[in-house]
Specification:
Length: 116
Amino acid sequence: MTGGEAADRKAYDALIVLPERTPDALLADKGYDADAIRADLAKQNIKPVIPGRLNRRVKIEHDRTLYKQRNRIEHMFDHLKINRAIATRYDQLASSFLGMVHIATARYWLKFVHTD
């Protein structure tokens, strides 16, 4: 977990080693548009689905259809941020914050499982 003011690129190294299985593609926003990240993804045979920053001299194309799947992730974060403690991050410790994220995720999941 990084600080709220940290650039997305700084978290890339920690995030890319998390999956148990190498992903086929990385869906990320413009914050991850860096030549070093794209080179690392190519080395690992992972397709970068990252739109290019507006200030790039050479425009980079990305799979727009696949990129739309990222919307599901954004929706999940929006639902989690309904909880004020998550949206404002009151917790000082990362473990406390993660615990609150787990509780919020379970509450969200229960809406779909428990239908009365």
